[in-house]
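STRUCTURE:
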């Protein structure tokens, strides 16, 4: 169970969240953000920091400013529409769709879905296309900039967001230009991802916090790097995830396996030992001990 730091420490951490310019500074920002309570974490800034870790030489200022520009455009569009209509959930959704997709051209990347750039928010901003979760982050950042109620959902395999106002709720698919999803469409989407036998579960509608959203984004990046056999970069992703979510021990297993694939057995042994010490699952401990035994015979 995670223990939140006292308020005075939180204040100090907020002061330490500096404007980062280099990959090393960006990783330090992620470490500092990872020590904050989830609600105190700046989702947009932390996503940019995670992206910059892998983009040496890129100046992040333009991307900070772009998100601010989008937020201002949302505020301006909402103010114009409010002169002619009451503030409803439908109006708020329409404003987000207008600014994100029509005015700035964001869309889901259906042609090169597995492109690694789709999981990097800086490249998503550059290219105006990306994965569902990357576009979902933009939805959440912009809606929250206006004080609107929005949250990411625990839907498997395809990130969705839910907006709410005055007891009314709408589930949106950022990947498909903010398409409103009813139960039948959600069921069809799930079956397309998990197979014809899959059925909707109530926990798929559970909200997810900032930290979980960013970990899920990084998991997409890690998956693509592993598929491309870039194990060294995948370890860098895992280290960023550990900085972001220090209580998440399961990354240690992936790190150990990747070190083993790179032939770095001493590092793999250390990671397996740390994983075994932290996992509460007997079956997970057993699996890790079996792999540890295999590589312990050849530590170099």
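SEQUENCE:
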């Amino acid at each position: 169970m995670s223990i939140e730091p006292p308020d005075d420490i939180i204040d100090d951490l907020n002061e330490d969240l500096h404007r980062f310019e280099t990959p090393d500074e960006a990783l330090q920002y992620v470490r500092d953000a990872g020590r904050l309570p989830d609600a105190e974490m700046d989702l947009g800034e932390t996503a940019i920091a995670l992206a910059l870790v892998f983009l040496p030489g890129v100046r992040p200022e333009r991307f900070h400013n772009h998100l601010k520009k989008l937020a201002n455009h949302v505020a301006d569009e909402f103010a114009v529409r409010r002169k002619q209509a009451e503030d409803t959930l439908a109006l708020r959704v329409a404003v987000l769709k207008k600014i994100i997709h029509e005015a700035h051209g964001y869309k889901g990347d259906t042609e090169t879905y597995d492109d690694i750039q789709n999981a990097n928010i800086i490249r998503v901003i550059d290219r105006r296309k990306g994965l569902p979760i990357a576009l979902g982050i933009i939805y959440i950042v912009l809606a929250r900039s206006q004080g609107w109620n929005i949250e990411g959902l625990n839907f498997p395999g395809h990130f969705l967001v839910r907006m709410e106002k005055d007891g009314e709720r709408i589930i949106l698919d950022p990947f498909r230009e903010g398409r409103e999803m009813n139960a039948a469409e959600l069921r069809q989407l799930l079956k397309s991802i998990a197979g014809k036998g899959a059925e909707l579960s109530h926990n798929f509608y559970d909200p997810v916090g900032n930290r979980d959203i960013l970990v899920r984004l990084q998991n997409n990046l890690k998956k693509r790097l592993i598929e491309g056999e870039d194990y060294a970069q995948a370890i860098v992703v895992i280290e960023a995830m550990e900085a972001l979510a220090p209580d998440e021990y399961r990354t240690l297993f992936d790190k150990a396996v990747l070190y083993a694939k790179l032939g770095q057995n001493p590092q793999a042994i250390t990671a397996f030992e740390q994983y075994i010490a932290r996992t509460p699952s007997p079956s997970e401990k057993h699996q890790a001990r079996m792999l540890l035994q295999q590589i312990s015979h050849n530590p170099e």
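REMARK: The beta strands are 107-108, 129-130, 149-153, 161-165, 168-173, 179-180, 207-208.
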